[in-house]
Amino acid sequence: MNTPPLDSKPYDIGTAGSPWSDAEKSQWLARQKKHRLHAQDVLPRIDALRDRFDVIEYGQLDYLEIANAATLGGHYPLLAVRSRSASQLPLVIVTGGVHGYETSGVLGALTFLETEAQFYADHFQLLVIPCVSPWGYETINRWNPNAIDPNRSFGAKGVAAEAQLLKKFVTGLGIEPLAHIDLHETTDTDNSEFRPALAARDGVTNKNWNIPDGFYLVDCSARPQPDFQRAILDSVAQVTHIADADADGKLIGTPLSQPGTIEYPTQKIGLCTGMTKAPYTSTTEVYPDSPKATPAQCTQAQVAAITGGLNYLRNLRSQAR
């Protein structure tokens, strides 16, 4: 468990205690850079799945007229991959890259599709969105170009296009999903960049949190499913280590509901897993900066989380028959 000082140094954009205006947001945007390309890393792997799955373009993001458009802008197709399963089967949603910088979420969703999804297509309708926030993926960012966090924008008042386009698409299917697994990471940059930037943007004081060394889950406090979370953790534990609680019995400042799991009010705060009324939801959190985990393990941990959840649901349905 990494233990940072409670107070981080002031962020170097804006005035302490004052929320950002458009000028500060533009200043933040101007310093961003592209480090990788969605069209090179993600789209070819999705295209290669078309012989086995349906690939659906559910929207587009047009960021061609933002600051530094020549090097920072982009036009992005938003793609979902759907299994060719019987329509009477329950729907399970998997999302990655809601926070584009969280690499194993994107790679885990793609690897699951490439290696494991076909084994579950006779049991579930699978809907996988590998990269919800392609601009964030390219710039290694938590926010979109408007300094908005997509993973706080899935509620009724959400404004991030990344979130609202996906929510509209899923709602338009007319199917209440059985489950939704959203693939995330908690990184050291949460304390060095993203939380200080958030505090500066909102004009509040930042308090760093202890970054858990290991994998953990976020359940929905309004409809908790501890056995579902435990099945996911048991599966992941075969790949990488599960995070221990800190000295206060917490993870990222939140009390544990069981070892390796905390709970958030996902619908209230606009998280991706709160966009439907799916009874089984889980947000994964991988720690890619751990000296005890490789990038390959982080990706495989995400795959193991998905398969662990699906195996639990498949066994549950089998017992109900």
Protein model, in words:
By secondary structure, this protein is α/β, with parallel strands linked by helices. The protein has a single domain, classed as Zn peptidases (Aminopeptidase, 3-Layer(aba) Sandwich). About 30% of the residues lie in helices and about 20% in strands. It has a ten-stranded mixed β-sheet, sandwiched between helices. Helix 5 links the parallel strand 3 and strand 4. The protein starts with about 20 loop residues before the first helix and ends with a helix. It holds the Pfam family DUF2817.
Write a compact overview of the structure shown:
This protein has 321 residues and is of the alpha/beta class.
Mean pLDDT: 95
Strand content: 15-25%
For the secondary structure, the number of strands is 10
Gross CATH architecture: 3-Layer(aba) Sandwich
Major sheet description: 10 strands, mixed
Stretches with pLDDT under 50, minimum 5 residues: none
Q: What portion of residues is helical? A: 25-40%
What is the string of helix and strand elements? HHHEHEEHEHHEHEHEEEEH
End-to-end span in angstroms? 44 Å
Shape: globular
Rg (CA only) = 19 Å
Helix/strand/pairing category:
alpha/beta
CATH-assigned fold name: Aminopeptidase
CATH top level class name: Alpha Beta
Number of domains: 1
Discrete helix count: 10
